[in-house]
Design brief:
The complex is a heterodimer of chains A (217) and B (218). With 217 residues, chain A is mainly alpha-helical. Chain A has helices at residues 6-45, 49-64, 67-75, 87-113, 116-124, 129-159, 171-182, 186-215. The chains are: A mainly alpha (217), B mainly alpha (218). At the A-B interface, α2, α3, α7 and α8 of A face α2, α3, α6, α7 and α8 of B.
Chain lengths: 217, 218
C-alpha cells in the first residue's frame, strides 16, 4: 500500500470546490436555524398553550428523528405534497430546520436563565415585550448561549456530510466521487477527515475567542 | 395528491425487522461504548502523558469528523487492510468507536464533579486505585452521567440510520426498498420517522426511570 500524493494535485480543485460548498451550505443553514430557533424560543415563552404545543412538537419531532429521514421526506416525499425542490435547496432548508430545533432549545434555556423579576420590573416601568426581549433578556443570556450555540454549529457542520446522500455537491460528495474515479480509498478519506477537522477546529477557536471577548463586557 | 397509508400493513414485518436491526446495532454500540468509553476516559485522565495525548487525539478525531465519514472510512479501509468484514460488523465497529469517544467525555465530566478529597481519603485508607474507581468513583458518577448518556444514545440511534449507506438492511434501508417498490416515498419515510421517534421516546423514558433508580441512595 502506497500513499499517492499526486492524487491531491489532480483532485485538489474538486475538493476545494466541495469544501467551499460545505461552508456555503452550513452558513445558510445555520442562519436559517438561528432565526427559526429564536422565533420558536420566543413563541414558546408566550402564554398561549396551542402555540407552545406546536413549538414543542417541532422540537421533539426534529430532535427525535434522524436528519436522513427528514431529508428523504422533503426530497423524495415532497412531490407528493406538490413540493418539487432541487437537492441543494432541500439540503439547505432541511439542515436549517434541523439545527433550528437545537438552537431553539439553546435559546429557551437562555431566556429561562434571566430571572422572572426582571421581566416583571421591566413591564411595570412600561417596556414593550419586544424591548424586554432585545434590551433586557438577550444581552444577559448572550454569554450563556454562546458555548452551546457553537456546539450546535459544529453539529450542523458534521451533519452536513449527510447531504451527500441526496447528491448535494458538498465535500463528502466530492470525496466519494474521487474514490469512485480513482479506486483510491485512504488518500481521499484522510483528506476529507482532515478538512472537516480543520473547519471544526476553526469554528471552535473563533467561538472561544468570541466568548472571551463577550465575558469582558 | 394525498397521502395513502393503506399499503402499509403488507410491509409492516419488513419495517419491524429493519427497526430490530437499527436497535441491535445501536444497542451494541451503546453497551460496548460504556466499556470502551470508560476505559478511554481512564486513559485520557491518566498521569501518563503519552497515553493521555493518544487518548485525546482519538477523541478529537472521532468527535471532530462526521460519523458518515467515519463509517465510510472504516467500511472501505477494512478490505484494503486485509480484513473482510460484512457491512453489519463494520457498522457496529464504526458506531462503537464513535460512541466511545463521546461517552469518554461524558464520564470525564462525571469524574470531575466528584470532590478530589474522596480520592485522597481512599488513598490514605490504602484502597487501591482500581478499587477506588470501581467502588467509589463509578457508582457516584453514574447518576450524573445518565442524562447526557441518554442524549448520546438518542444520537447513536439516529446516526444508525446512516448505516443504510453501507448496505446494512436497517429501518432506513428497508424504507428505501419499500419506497422503490411502491412509489410512495412520502408515506414510507414519514412512517420510518415515526418509528425512530417512538424508539427515541422509549429510550428517553428508560433514561428517566434509571435516573430515579440510581438516585435512590443519594
Amino acid at each position: 500500500m502506497s500513499f499517492d500524493f499526486n492524487l491531491y494535485v489532480q483532485y485538489g480543485p474538486t475538493l476545494m470546490a466541495g469544501l467551499g460548498f460545505t461552508v456555503y451550505v452550513c452558513a445558510l443553514a445555520a442562519l436559517i436555524g438561528i432565526v427559526v430557533g429564536m422565533v420558536v424560543a420566543i413563541l414558546q415563552g408566550l402564554p398561549v398553550p396551542p402555540l407552545r404545543w406546536v413549538c414543542r412538537g417541532y422540537i421533539e419531532v426534529i430532535r427525535g428523528t434522524p436528519i436522513l429521514v427528514q431529508l428523504f421526506i422533503i426530497y423524495y416525499g415532497g412531490p407528493s405534497f406538490g413540493l418539487v425542490l432541487d437537492a441543494e435547496t432541500v439540503g439547505i432548508w432541511g439542515l436549517g430546520i434541523y439545527c433550528g430545533a437545537y438552537f431553539a432549545e439553546v435559546f429557551r434555556a437562555g431566556f429561562e436563565s434571566v430571572p422572572k423579576g426582571q421581566t416583571e420590573a421591566a413591564r411595570l416601568v412600561g417596556l414593550s415585550s419586544a424591548r424586554i426581549i432585545f434590551r433586557i433578556k438577550l444581552p444577559q443570556m448572550l454569554i450563556l448561549i454562546i458555548p452551546p450555540s457553537i456546539n450546535t454549529l459544529i453539529m450542523t457542520i458534521k451533519e452536513s456530510a449527510i447531504l451527500s446522500i441526496i447528491t448535494v455537491p458538498e465535500i463528502t460528495k466530492m470525496t466519494i466521487q474521487m474514490v469512485n474515479e480513482t479506486y483510491a480509498v485512504f488518500e481521499p478519506y484522510i483528506a476529507l477527515a482532515f478538512l472537516y477537522w480543520v473547519i471544526i477546529e476553526i469554528v471552535s477557536r473563533v467561538g472561544r475567542a468570541v466568548e472571551a471577548r463577550i465575558s469582558y463586557l | 395528491m394525498g397521502l395513502d397509508f393503506t399499503f402499509l400493513p403488507e410491509y409492516a414485518p419488513f419495517l419491524l425487522k429493519g427497526a430490530g436491526i437499527a436497535l441491535l446495532v445501536s444497542g451494541v454500540a451503546i453497551s460496548l461504548g460504556i466499556i470502551f468509553g470508560l476505559s478511554l476516559c481512564f486513559v485520557v485522565i491518566s498521569k501518563n502523558r503519552v497515553l493521555s495525548v493518544l487518548g485525546r487525539i482519538y477523541q478529537s478525531l472521532f468527535r471532530g469528523t462526521p460519523i458518515l465519514v467515519q463509517l465510510l472510512v472504516i467500511y472501505y479501509s477494512l478490505p484494503v487492510l486485509g480484513i473482510d468484514a460484512p457491512p453489519l460488523i463494520a457498522a457496529m465497529a464504526a458506531l462503537t468507536m464513535n460512541a466511545s469517544a463521546f461517552q469518554a467525555e461524558i464520564y470525564r465530566g462525571g469524574f470531575m464533579a466528584i470532590p478530589k478529597g474522596q480520592i485522597e481519603a481512599a488513598r490514605v485508607l490504602g484502597i487501591g486505585i482500581w478499587r477506588t474507581r470501581v467502588r467509589i468513583l463509578i457508582p457516584q458518577m453514574m447518576r450524573s452521567v445518565i442524562p447526557p448518556l441518554v442524549n448520546d444514545s438518542v444520537s447513536i440511534l439516529k446516526n444508525s440510520s446512516l448505516i443504510s449507506v453501507i448496505a446494512v438492511v436497517d429501518l432506513m434501508r428497508v424504507s428505501q426498498q419499500i419506497a422503490a417498490v411502491t412509489f410512495r416515498p412520502a408515506e414510507i419515510y414519514i412512517v420510518a420517522g415515526a418509528m425512530y421517534l417512538m424508539m427515541n421516546l422509549v429510550l428517553a423514558w428508560v433514561g428517566r426511570i434509571s435516573e430515579r433508580r440510581f438516585g435512590r441512595h443519594l
